[in-house]
Amino acid sequence: MRNLYILTGFIIIGVSLGFFTINKEYLSPTREAKALLSTGKLYLEQSSKESLKIAVEKFSKIISSFSKTPHAKDALYYLGEAYEKMGLHEAALKKYQELKNFNTDIDMTEKIKFKISKIKIMQSYADEGLNGFMSLLSSTKNPQLRSEVYNELGKYYKKIGDLNSSERNFRIALVEYSRSKEAQLNLARVLIDLGKNNEAYMVYENYLAFYSDIDPQISEILKQYRQEIFEAGNKLYQHKEYSEAINYFSLLTKKFKNTEENEKSLYLTSKILLDQKNYNEALAALEELLNNNINTYNPQALLLKGELFFRQKEYKKASSIFSEAQIKFPNTKEALTAKEWEEEIRRFLIDKENLTHDKSELIMEPENIVNSQTKDNEKSIEISKEPAIFKTNSSNEPVELEYTILPANDDDTITQPILQGDIEIDNNSNTILP
Question: 104, 132, 150 — which closes off a domain?
Answer without folding.
Answer: 104
